[in-house]
Design brief:
The protein is α/β, with parallel strands linked by helices. It is built from 7 helices and 9 strands. Helix 1 packs antiparallel against helix 3, helix 5 packs parallel to helix 6 and helix 6 packs parallel to helix 7.
């Protein structure tokens, strides 16, 4: 992949999810509690585009996935807004949150585009650089020791990764090429029972780009995943078999 991997800057314009929430399985453990007020405040103060209700769903999924004892991985760090949630879930379970981004900004965040943020431009090189903002975000929340930040292209990182993952959260570049590379690179590492989360899934093309939706359809068609209740544009799938 040769293009950016920052969190999507698309507004969360998804229509309400009409699917009913699935009832808990018999004997299932109670759902984990939500983030503490301080963490939630840090999440909302950080630069980023994930709304609160989707962030809460991400946190709940991360708490469940962390029980498997494997790292929790996201593609698309941006300034660390969602990383805070994964890091706290990882901290509570004694695992590590891994976040992958080259920190040069996604396609729509470049100069001249609607979501360009001048505060994130490195004046020395004249390019986007979200890494300093990310480091400040994680440091202020006291979560640095629970985060492994991989700075570089997602496919290159995936090519050398060997450990199983409890969660794969895909929220990187939204072109077909880049979204597909994130999926192919990281989903094979997802452990049995692990969770695959895909952000910005919009069934209606009028609401957003198609690439995340196509990943979602691919996962379902593989027969290797069972869908769990989603929230807004966030889809949650649990690995139930091999394949991808």
């Amino acid at each position: 992949m040769t293009r950016p991997h920052a969190q999507s800057a698309r507004p969360s314009a998804a229509r309400p999810d009409p699917r009913p929430a699935a009832p808990p399985e018999p004997g299932a453990a109670a759902a984990p509690s939500g983030p503490e007020p301080g963490l939630l405040a840090a999440f909302e103060a950080a630069k980023g585009f994930m709304p609160r209700h989707e962030g809460l769903a991400l946190y709940a999924a991360a708490r469940r996935a962390a029980r498997l004892g494997h790292p929790l991985l996201e593609v698309g760090t941006y300034c660390g807004r969602s990383t805070l949630l994964l890091a706290d879930a990882a901290r509570r379970a004694g695992v590590t949150a891994v976040t992958v981004d080259h920190h040069r900004g996604s396609e729509e965040q470049q100069p001249g585009w609607e979501y360009h943020d001048r505060e994130l431009v490195d004046p020395a090189v004249g390019r986007m650089d979200t890494l300093p903002a990310f480091r400040r975000t994680v440091h202020a929340a006291g979560l640095e020791e629970h985060v492994l930040a991989l700075v570089g292209r997602s496919p290159q990182a995936a090519a050398v990764w060997r450990a199983p993952l409890g969660l794969v959260f895909i929220d990187g570049g939204h072109t077909e090429e880049h979204a597909r590379a994130d999926y192919v690179g990281w989903v094979p590492h997802l452990a049995d029972g692990g969770l695959l989360l895909i952000h910005d899934v919009f069934p209606d093309p009028a609401d957003g780009g198609r690439a995340p939706f196509h990943l979602y359809l691919r996962a379902l068609a593989s027969g290797a995943f069972a869908e769990e209740p989603g929230t807004g544009s966030l889809r949650v799938l649990r690995r139930t078999g091999r394949g991808w």
